[in-house]
């Protein structure tokens, strides 16, 4: 819920935003919209695995997307769901239930690829069953210098300290310093559905690029009503593709916000969103999106 406050102050939920929280991140406006590989090339390989991220890079993705969870012993791991049941396979005591109730050692007993083979027999690969739950550290070590990272804090309210651990790790790998730019794009973008999490990230890393995700059930009008507040602490929005029209794109850009819709897998929808002027989009099919962007007259 958003409500007005005194002049110069905005209130979002229980979070008070003042001028001190205003973004200090560089602009991401580029001539070419960015390709964000949603959970990797997840139409072709199991999501959130090295197999999916490796393939996404081969397909020309600008960013690899990662969903962040925290273990019982405070380790940052990458998994979309806050529970293991959908994608993890292995001993039930280690590989079912909430991620935050398991230690990293317990998660090492789980594989996260065979479910994909069962669900997608046409692109199944026996090697997928060898894929394990990756840590954020492992991902940064594997892809540092050859990929950009688009990281979401998932269920941060259930994992106190997630933001601090994330920023500490990014600082360790010098990924928050965007000043040595041979690249017009920052190496890391941080996203969340939680305004509170983004405000915390802004305080911890004033120069970070932040994206406010908005729920699919929120109408275009509902998103537009929030834009002034979002512009006080974030650099862009990640709306559901079905909510994106000329009014939303125009209003977001007028507020100085980027627009990165999710999750777009149909080529015709990609073309229509590009025509509206979005700044990039999430897709499970980075190869299709890359081709559509290459053919886009803009």
Short recap of the structure:
This protein has 298 residues and is α/β, with parallel strands linked by helices.
Strand and helix map with partners:
Layout: E1 2-4, E2 10-12, E3 15-17, E4 34-37, H1 50-58, E5 63-70, E6 76-78, H2 92-95, H3 104-107, H4 114-119, H5 136-143, E7 149-153, H6 162-172, E8 188-192, H7 195-204, E9 209-213, H8 220-230, E10 236-238, H9 246-254, E11 258-259, H10 267-276, E12 280-283, H11 286-295
Parallel strand pairs: 4-5, 4-12, 5-7, 7-8, 8-9, 9-10, 10-11
Antiparallel strand pairs: 1-2, 2-3, 5-6
Walk me through this protein's architecture:
The chain has helices spanning 50-58, 92-95, 104-107, 114-119, 136-143, 162-172, 195-204, 220-230, 246-254, 267-276, 286-295; strands spanning 2-4, 10-12, 15-17, 34-37, 63-70, 76-78, 149-153, 188-192, 209-213, 236-238, 258-259, 280-283. The chain has a single domain (2-83, 135-295), classed as Phosphatidylinositol (PI) phosphodiesterase (TIM Barrel). Strands 4, 5, 6, 7, 8, 9, 10, 11 and 12 form a nine-stranded mixed beta sheet that branches. The chain has 298 residues and is an alpha/beta fold. The chain is globular.
